[in-house]
């Protein structure tokens, strides 16, 4: 018989219902209100978070299961005891989602031989050898009955001993009160003399969060890396690098007179084709002696370690820039209007008219640089006609000079997140992640670490010890920048069944304006030093600047394998 996981619902709305799941090949069951959860509850039950808890099988022992809270607002309880980390489950254990929330019983069919019964509930009656004893009988004969009579001398001795014990107790209590009064007076005196130092130390020790921005930076600097990369766009059909077609700005007329198509626009002009009401860049696999402009670039960003064996999270536009908006810094270009027999009209356009296009989603390629070999790229869900390639993707740890080659491990297909991997024999220090998407609030304090380009660069000169290469070299020594702020706004993209789509991206708008380009992909920490987001972008209007981060939930998606949900 195939083993099954049984979820017996005990709450009023689903009382008596049993859900079962195959235990073979089991990884985890997610519990909550979200439609993607395997164990789902009433979407109107505000005691249950969207992703409240998860039940997981132990990698070492498939017959052993644990339950863990996923940062829910109201907590998870096992046998009426709130849990704050993964807790081992036994057959018959009761799991409750929030105090007074829905409750269910965990069980296995068949039960493993070594699986003990449910732990008793916290409010159940005590058990043991004293549980069934009757109250002690007063008086009467028996082995513990009082003696029949007591002499006068014995009574007088007992009274004297009682008086001495009373005096001793009185002296002890008086001495204790005196010590307390003296200690309280000293505390008040010290507090009045140095209020800031004393209060800060007490608050840091007793606060549930207990971490200042300085402490968060000190604890996580070794896990935050600088990323440098250079990339190009490749035509997978020919294997060649792609360039945007560009034509000379200077042309000769029939009389040999030289003039500029767009005065003052430089040597070459990028070419775009008009497709309907849109402009599309014209790409080519030919370089035409360097006249066409290669699609690619060099840039830097930030990442952070999420596993001891070298996996790191960052932005997709850092590690796979061909999935991000792209454009040449040319002041002007040409828009070609096609007719039935070829180009019908060529119109100069300014830079602010250039379309925002994604290199991996370009639509037009020519092999010769002209329109005779033009082909339209099919947008197939089964193959990649255009793909990017990192010529180098280097990682440098804080206050180190040696670059470590990394490889692109995985990218998100729906948001600006990517995962990369480095290989080192040494165990790396990872950050702690906290998926608080369901409970994060406007005003929550956050701290960001990263390598913004605006920060001053620290350079170290490396003296060579190589007899074959005696030349010294200068290397940047990355030193992360700390930025402090709050959650200014929580924006959630949603799709309603009976309404229009509501979409502004899934992001946390921040009040952190002291960082910018280069900090992309950096970790966003909560007040307890746990990563809750990935710094991703910033924009400005006049003198006002705004930054934003992606919920860490999307980074955690890349760290495992999940089924696609409709």
Describe this structure in words.
It is a single chain. By secondary structure, this protein is mainly β. Among the domains are: 4-109, Tumour Suppressor Smad4, CATH 2.60.200; 178-207, no CATH class; 220-252 and 259-304 and 319-391, no CATH class. It has 5 helices and 38 strands. The strands form 7 sheets. Strands 14, 15, 18, 19, 20, 23, 24, 25 and 26 form a 9-stranded mixed sheet that branches. Strands 12, 13, 21, 22, 27, 28, 29 and 30 form an 8-stranded antiparallel sheet that branches. Strands 2-1-11-10-7-8 form a 6-stranded antiparallel sheet, with no helix packed on it. Helix 1 (152-193) packs across helix 2 (195-206). The chain is globular and about 125 Å long. Residues 118-155, 193-208 and 495-503 have low confidence and may be disordered.
Radius of gyration: 35 Å
Shape: globular
Structural class call reads mainly beta
The major beta sheet can be summarized as:
9 strands, mixed
Strand content: 35-45%
How many strand segments? 38
Q: Tell me the span between the first and last alpha carbons.
A: 32 Å
Helical amount among residues, as a percent range?
10-25%
Uncertain runs are 118-155, 193-208, 495-503
- Averaged pLDDT: 81
If helices are DSSP runs of H or I spanning 4 or more residues, what is the number of helices? 5
Helix/strand layout:
Blueprint: E1 4-9, E2 18-22, E3 28-32, E4 39-40, E5 53-57, E6 65-69, E7 76-78, E8 81-82, E9 87-89, E10 94-97, E11 103-109, H1 152-193, H2 195-206, H3 213-220, E12 224-235, E13 240-241, E14 243-244, E15 246-248, E16 250-252, E17 258-260, E18 268-275, E19 278-284, E20 293-294, E21 296-305, E22 311-314, H4 316-319, E23 332-339, E24 342-350, E25 364-366, E26 374-376, E27 386-397, E28 404-405, E29 407-411, E30 418-421, E31 445-450, E32 459-462, E33 473-476, E34 481-491, E35 507-510, E36 523-525, E37 531-541, E38 544-551, H5 552-557
Helix pairs in contact: 1-2
